[in-house]
Design a protein that fits this description.
By secondary structure, the protein is α/β, with parallel strands linked by helices. It has 40 helices and 16 strands. An eleven-stranded mixed beta sheet has the order 3-2-1-4-5-16-15-12-8-6-7, sandwiched between helices. The relative contact order is 0.06.
């Protein structure tokens, strides 16, 4: 099975700069003083009291202007990465301030020294300097420094993964500020978010970051604002929401470059490189990682250097350069131990475990993993805990002890289930989190299959399937609209209007991204401030054997579920033989990479009417269906739970178990999971709504107007809404669709490869005075609708495409329809020809009107179309698939 790359590539680069450089707030603005540089040079060489008196006599009194310029000069040198010169300035400033009893600048410059110590990983020295600074801050003339010192002391604890102590110190800082009436100190607020982020509690972290962002924007503090964007970007990347993370990192990088902040740039480049690796963009990844390594090493920023070592080590694992990778992880572990950074120690250990796994040294893997579990548990790092447990499970599997492997994977799963409740954001963010955490569930399925526990293996596989979708269906639609205040509604209306304007005026991609990002930030803030939204989730019970009995009622029905791994694929077949349910598990010697290549080539051949499609079709059949063909000869109604690349495979066009095309033998539906089938069947039986409209049909392009009109003649005129041309507007659809049994959209579909929920159906242009619509019915908008339709037919190009998400399936328009409440959809997997599609759609609706279920109706329409020699090639008919019930 694939061991996904999260094991190392979760950066813990939160917090450093906001603690180390939040020093001189409230200090007097420095003035120009030509004495500062010669005074500093002379003072550092003065060893005796007589020499110091001579320096004072030559350059004048040690007064406020001199101390201010010396300290600010040191900060500028630190910002440029010249740490040794900065330390000289801070030392001179502190000694001089103490000499003349200037308690304020004594506290400030001792803090600056502590911050420099932190950047260099000298935490004991940092704590000593901060405590000295606190002593001076207790004096009446320097008391305003108390919250800043407390905040920085918290940073020392947090950098060493002493999170409870850090949280306590930060809360003391916030409490002090409230008591003293200090309302603009954002540093402890941001750092609270950082600690919760480090502990894996994104839902609690985001509100602190957004609050700090507002405070820094009000003050115009671009340097600190860069850190907020960076920290939010880290949270998004940890949830695998790379689009949102990229926008935050880009914003942070622009501000860091504007302010010349080298230390922030080092951190941002490191996380960008890590993320680009996860996105399979190796050239961009290594460029950014090398830049991070160069910047952090050049300025002696050990924490960022440590992260760069980890990320480059992981990159080298992917490339197979195990010797270099191991060396980088070992150096990273040494640096992390010097820094007393338990979080990065765990990352280094997991990296070394990955290297050992590639070398098949499973005893070494186990040692690294168990050490990682211990350290993660000690510091409350829940992400690190489940990842280390999963690595230990791999080790036990390699050592042949499946019983211990089962125990460790189960512990990993327990932590993941707890973490699902603290993911920041809504449906999309939860789906992205679970996507990266599916691996332990898949390994449990393999272990149960090896043990002959077929039901247990199927249940483990089902626990990876469509979890977020099932949560939504179990808990009901998100209560987000109900929980918005009037102010929230006004802001949302404004933000959605900005998106519509950017779309309708063909704005530059950057402008569109900015509009969408503003709306995403609004939603994130909304989720974070409403506990009901944070905890909104169902908990659909795991499918049981009695459920399977009901789902396979007779010999005519079969369910086929795939679980694809790195080197093998499991196939579960559920059939009835002699009246008894039979659940079988078959292991196929083909992995995900090979299936991705095969399915992609086959689909391309069908789209291009390549005569070589038959050889590819036979190869896919031999790999996937031939080993289970005996179980599939009788059933004429088949549900397929696909996995990975198989979501984009037109199974209906593959050879059937008795020859011909499979569609000639059986009606075929794709379904997100067996649990989905169970829950939706139960819902259909218990909830039978009445509909005002039997059909709502829209055409988005002139050549499909006739399709819609002909389909409309099959339904009762009084219960039908047909809209073509300029009438097929997005705004009217959002009203018409709310009370329709069948929805039919004949329009162009556009797949967004970067963000599947920006995939859209293009309807007619909005009225000129519309400020909220753009004619694009996007997936994210569908998700916010409350639909109850039994069926949605999207007879547009590629409406069935999207992003294949680990466990969740195809995330795009179909997924959005499910979220909105539609039980079944008919969609296309590639561009389709208009005339054949019109014939197919008319045939489909004719059969629906005669009482056929969607899969049977589509099969009948396909068989009728195939009789026409002009349309017998599967390019014309196999693009359309039924997804759902």
């Amino acid at each position: 099975m694939l061991f996904v790359r999260w094991a190392v590539r979760i950066s813990q680069n939160l917090l450093f700069l906001v603690v180390a450089m939040t020093m001189c707030l409230n200090a007097q603005t420095p003035t120009v003083d030509s004495r500062s540089e010669p005074f500093t040079a002379a003072w550092q060489t003065a060893k005796t009291e007589a020499e110091r008196l001579a320096v004072e006599a030559k350059f004048g009194p040690i007064d406020l202007p001199l101390l201010s310029v010396i300290s600010s000069g040191g900060e500028n040198l630190q910002k440029k990465g010249d740490f040794p010169a900065a330390r000289i300035h801070f030392n001179v400033c502190a000694e001089s301030a103490i000499r003349v009893s200037n308690d304020l600048y004594a506290s400030i410059c001792l803090q600056l020294l502590g911050g420099l110590d932190r950047l260099e990983g000298k935490y004991d020295d940092a704590e000593q300097h901060y405590r000295q600074a606190l002593d001076f801050a207790q004096k009446p003339t320097a008391s305003r420094r108390i919250p800043f010192v407390l905040n920085n002391l918290a940073g020392v604890y947090i950098a060493q993964a002493q999170y409870p102590e850090g949280l306590e110190m930060l809360q003391a800082t916030i409490d002090y500020n409230a008591k003293a009436g200090i309302i603009n100190d954002a540093a402890p607020v941001q750092n609270m978010g950082s600690v919760y982020g480090l502990m894996g509690d994104s839902a609690r972290a985001i509100p602190y970051f957004l609050r700090a962002q507002t405070m820094y924007e009000a003050k115009g503090d671009d340097r600190k604002l860069a850190l907020v964007h960076y920290n939010i970007g880290v949270l998004y990347s940890r949830q695998a929401d790379y689009g949102s993370a990229s926008r935050e990192f880009d914003a942070g990088r622009a501000l860091a470059e504007k302010t010349g902040d080298t230390t922030s740039l080092a951190m941002i480049y490191g996380d960008v490189g890590r993320m680009r690796g996860l996105e399979n963009k190796p050239a961009e990844a290594i460029t950014a990682l090398n830049r991070a390594l160069e910047l952090s090493k050049g300025i002696g920023f050990k924490a960022a250097y440590n992260d760069a070592l980890l990320n480059i080590g992981n990159f080298e694992v992917d490339r197979g350069d195990l010797a270099k990778s191991k060396a980088h992880f070992e150096e990273a572990l040494q640096v992390a131990e010097q820094l007393k950074d338990a979080q990065n120690q765990g990352l280094a250990l997991r990296g070394l475990g990955l290297v050992a796994r590639r070398q098949k040294d499973y005893r070494a893997v186990l040692g690294y993993a168990e050490d990682g579990v211990k350290r993660a548990t000690q510091i409350g790092d829940r992400n690190g805990q489940w990842q280390s447990e999963a690595l230990a499970g791999i080790a036990w599997r390699g050592l042949g002890d499946n019983a211990k492997a089962r125990e460790t994977f189960q512990r990993a799963v327990t932590v993941i289930e707890e973490q699902r409740g603290v993911v920041a954001g809504g449906e999309v963010e939860k789906q992205l989190f679970f996507e990266q955490a599916a691996f332990p569930y898949q390994e449990l399925a393999l272990i149960e299959a090896d043990a002959g526990n077929t039901i247990g293996a199927l249940q483990a596989a089902e626990r990876t399937r469509a979890r977020v979708l099932l949560d939504i269906l179990e808990a009901g639609p998100s209560p987000i609209d109900r929980l918005m205040s009037d102010q929230d509604r006004a802001e949302e209306k404004h933000l959605r209007a900005a998106i519509a304007a950017a779309n309708s005026h063909a704005a530059a991609i950057r402008e569109r991204d900015q509009a969408w990002h503003a709306y995403e930030s609004f939603l994130a803030n909304l989720y974070s401030k409403n506990p009901e939204l944070r905890t909104w989730r169902g908990d659909s019970p795991v499918v049981a054997e009695k459920d399977l009995e009901a789902l396979v009622p007779d010999a005519s029905t079969a369910i086929v579920e795939f679980l694809s791994g790195q080197d093998q694929t499991l196939v579960f077949t559920l059939t009835r033989v002699a009246g008894k349910l039979r659940v079988k598990t078959t292991s196929l010697p083909v992995g995900r990479e090979a299936l991705t290549a095969l399915a992609g080539r086959y689909r391309s051949q069908l789209e291009g009417r390549d005569p070589g499609f038959r050889a590819s079709s036979r190869e896919l059949y031999d790999q996937l269906l031939k080993p289970v063909a005996a179980d599939l000869r009788i059933p004429n109604r088949v549900y397929i739970v696909a996995d990975g690349p198989l979501w984009e495979l037109p199974f209906q066009s593959l050879p059937g178990p008795s020859g011909g095309y499979w569609i000639e033998h059986a009606a075929i539906s794709m379904t997100p999971s067996i649990t989905f089938l169970r829950d939706e069947n139960a819902l259909a039986q218990s909830k039978q709504p009445t509909f005002a409209h039997a059909l709502v049909a829209y055409s988005g392009v002139p050549e499909l107007d006739e399709q819609v009109r002909k389909i409309g003649t099959l339904y009762s005129p009084g219960r039908t809404i047909l809209r073509t041309g300029g009438e097929s507007r997005e705004s009217t659809f959002k009203t018409d669709a709310l009370n329709a049994r069948v929805l039919h959209l004949a329009a162009h579909g556009v797949v967004d490869r970067q963000n599947a929920l920006h995939s859209r159906i293009v309807l007619s242009s909005p009225e000129s005075n519309s400020q909220s619509e753009d004619g694009w019915l996007e997936a994210w908008e569908l998700m916010r609708m409350n639909l109850n339709a039994d069926l949605a037919i999207l007879s547009a190009c590629e409406t069935g495409r999207g992003r294949v998400a680990e466990g969740e399936g195809m995330v795009g328009l179909t997924w959005a329809m499910f979220v909105a409440g539609v039980r079944t959809t008919v969609v296309s997997q590639w561009q389709v020809e208009a005339r054949s599609t019109t014939q197919l759609m008319i045939g489909l609706h004719e059969r629906l009107r005669h009482g056929d279920k969607p899969a049977e109706a589509l099969r009948g329409a396909i068989l009728a179309l195939m009789k026409n020699p002009r349309y017998s090639h599967p390019m014309y008919w196999s693009a359309f698939v039924v997804t759902g019930l």
